[in-house]
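hey so i finally got around to running both of the ones u sent me last week. sorry it took forever, my laptop kept dying halfway thru and i had to restart like 3 times lol. anyway pasting them below in the order u listed, first the sequence line then the structure token line for each. didnt double check formatting much so if smth looks off just lmk and ill redo it

first one:
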Amino acid sequence: MEITCGIDIIEIDRIKECIEPLNEKFKERVYTEKEIIYSESKNNQKYQHYAVRFATKEAVFKAISKFLDDKFEISWKDIEITNDETGRPKVKIYHEISKKIDKIDISMSHCKQYAVANVVITWN
């Protein structure tokens, strides 16, 4: 068994600047429909939720990077951050590389200025 990890931190204002005022292209390129619906439902804190999902996707990229090559290109939308029935965040990877993954554990947090995520992956 092999274990990899990734971590990322981002300023929430950077994500806000990418999304507002009219840059829907960024949202459509990076986030899945479920992620957009969830983040938009958070009203005044929506940018924190967009940012923490971005940081989590970056952390996932870092954790899987050693297994990526030309045949394993992956896009932002191939990684989706949702919540289970208890509210715990989870990752779904819509890509062939997911067949090599045994488990993914994530931890996400945000405050007024920053969002941070940590990802640990165990491989088959």
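and the second one:
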Amino acid sequence: MKKADILASLIIGLACGLILPHVALFTGILPEQVLRYFPVFLPVLSLLGVWILETVFKRTRTLIQFGKSFLVGILNSSIDMGVFDCLIWFFSITSGWLPVLFKTISFSCGAVNSYFWNKFWTFQKKDTENKTKEAVQFFLITIGGLLIHTMVIYIVLNIIGVRFGVSERMWASIANMTAIFTGFVWNFLGYKFIVFKT
């Protein structure tokens, strides 16, 4: 396992370990006693995951890239959920068009993070002949992902509406997680076969 993979997996795990407890506290998904261990537990889990990927799938580059992209996606999602939940909390708005704007902002924060991690770590595309073309392609794939995310957010919050007796805040977080999972495959395939072509 390369030093870069060790360092990257530890950084991603630590960042998720610092962000996700706040998201979980906001939604009330996990008790605070469990969340305090995230900054230690998640870096170790992240490192173990990358080690397993590199060991088991060492000859299958696409599966290693998928695993790394998934790990980066968890960080992107953590940033996305953290920003989204902060905006929902700050403005106390959980329906209408403003949550779609909040999602656009939170998604954009995760997308910027995604570009750098996927380019330099997941797909290791350090030298690019046409940086403008790559940036435009990344932007277009990301905009497609944003459209998927915002459409899911709008449908879950405004058409389906709150269900199963959960709070409005919890339902907004469920809508956000649904959007994130829906867009992950789109992003991975677009980045791999169109943007970074590895």
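quick thing i noticed on the 2nd:
The helical segments are 3-27, 32-35, 38-56, 61-91, 98-122, 131-160, 168-195.
anyway thats it, ttyl
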